[in-house]
């Protein structure tokens, strides 16, 4: 009996000590979770703010700088507007959703948010596609496209991009699940229609990605071919037989070199270069020719680096998300909400990277940004 009483008292003491230790550990765990969530919210908030600020700076630079009023830059401006909309209309609600872990804004706001999310993100991706197409035409058809490269043409391209984006994002509105009563506690893209999943992922990403890769590959291949031709023909500088060929060759090569695949308009550079090359002088010594070849070679390497950054950032940001969407639609995987949120925000980050990549290598944009900073300091 004494032994049994001792054991009972001991078990009671152990239970009490267990309760005493569980309470602090539970409180510690709760504090840790709150701290982690606070860090995530602050980090995502900074990403959202940076995305809005950088894209608004690009928009302001184009509007306030006359030198940037070019059709090619209007496409960049439209891309910045789209990415700004992602930062203002999409990312903040996503932060709220991640923080609350439940949707409390109602079904109408949920459907509007998902539709705007899909439309703006798809539109941002398609903008990259038309920018690549614009550069491809500007490089491979410099003379012919210079006449067609107008503000009206840029507006038509932007309109087509928005129309395609809307056609991709609108269909789920007709079959998205609506709760019979109360407020929905979840708001996410449903994958009940496999056909639509394939249609949307291919239309919003896989087809544009393929087109972008093909366009930039052809741009770079054309440049490599022109560099090789220039290197092989520089020894054949006969004044009577090769003057026209040299003119045509230098014209296209220089168009590519000065553009450097940046947002500058190569046609304007060609106009200035054309004036100097109408009366070509073949008395120039080989040192000058070698120097020009070295300049073009260095610009070729720079163009390759820019291409690598543009394509690498685009694929790294969006490929994981759309691969997940396709596999979920095909019932192959079922990722956790945390993984889905991470892949979604990885795609959002592309809206921050776009204005940096498409303006950082352009001297006109750099000067415009400096001008904006000086204006801000004076105000």
Automatic annotation (TrEMBL):
Pfam families: 7tm_1 (PF00001). One of its GO terms (biological process) is positive regulation of MAPK cascade. It is found in: Cell membrane. Keywords: Cell membrane, Disulfide bond, G-protein coupled receptor, Glycoprotein, Membrane, Receptor, Transducer, Transmembrane, Transmembrane helix. One of its GO terms (cellular component) is plasma membrane. Its main location: membrane. One of its GO terms (molecular function) is serotonin binding. The chain crosses the membrane at residues 38-63, 75-100, 112-133, 154-174, 194-220, 303-322, 342-361. It is a multi-pass membrane protein. InterPro entries: 5HT_rcpt (IPR002231), GPCR_Rhodpsn (IPR000276), GPCR_Rhodpsn_7TM (IPR017452). Residues 54-358 form the G-protein coupled receptors family 1 profile domain. Gene3D superfamilies: Rhodopsin 7-helix transmembrane proteins (1.20.1070.10). Belongs to the G-protein coupled receptor 1 family. This is G-protein coupled receptors family 1 profile domain-containing protein.
């Amino acid at each position: 009996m004494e032994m049994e009483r001792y054991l009972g008292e001991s078990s009671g003491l152990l239970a009490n000590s267990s309760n005493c230790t569980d309470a602090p550990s539970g409180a510690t765990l709760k504090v840790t979770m709150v701290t982690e969530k606070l860090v995530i919210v602050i980090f995502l908030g900074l990403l959202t703010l940076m995305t809005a600020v950088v894209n608004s700076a690009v928009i302001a630079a184009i509007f306030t700088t006359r030198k940037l009023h070019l059709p090619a830059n209007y496409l960049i401006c439209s891309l910045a507007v789209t990415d700004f909309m992602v930062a203002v209309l999409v990312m903040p609600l996503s932060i709220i959703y991640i923080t609350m872990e439940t949707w409390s804004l109602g079904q109408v706001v949920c459907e509007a948010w998902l539709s705007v999310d899909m439309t703006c993100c798809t539109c941002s991706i398609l903008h990259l596609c038309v920018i690549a197409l614009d550069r491809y035409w500007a490089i491979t058809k410099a003379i012919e496209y210079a006449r067609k490269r107008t503000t009206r043409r840029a507006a038509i391209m932007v309109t087509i991009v928005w129309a395609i984006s809307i056609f991709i994002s609108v269909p789920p509105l007709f079959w998205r699940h609506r709760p019979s009563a109360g407020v929905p506690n979840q708001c996410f893209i449903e994958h009940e229609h496999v056909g639509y999943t394939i249609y949307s992922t291919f239309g919003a990403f896989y087809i544009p990605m393929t087109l972008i890769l093909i366009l930039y590959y052809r741009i770079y291949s054309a440049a490599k071919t022109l560099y090789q031709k220039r290197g092989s023909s520089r020894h054949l500088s006969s004044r009577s037989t090769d003057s026209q060929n040299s003119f045509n060759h230098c014209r296209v090569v220089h168009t590519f070199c000065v553009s450097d695949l940046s947002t500058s308009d190569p046609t304007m550079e060609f106009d200035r270069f054309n004036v100097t090359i109408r009366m070509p002088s073949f008395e120039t010594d080989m040192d000058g020719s070698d120097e020009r070849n070295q300049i073009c070679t260095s610009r070729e390497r720079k163009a390759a680096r820019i291409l690598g950054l543009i394509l690498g950032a685009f694929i790294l940001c969006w490929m994981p998300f759309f691969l997940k969407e396709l596999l979920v639609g095909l019932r192959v995987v079922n990722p956790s909400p945390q993984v889905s949120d991470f892949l979604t925000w990885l795609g959002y980050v592309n809206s921050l990277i776009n204005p940096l990549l498409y303006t950082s290598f352009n001297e006109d944009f750099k000067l415009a940004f400096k001008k904006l900073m000086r204006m801000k300091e004076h105000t």
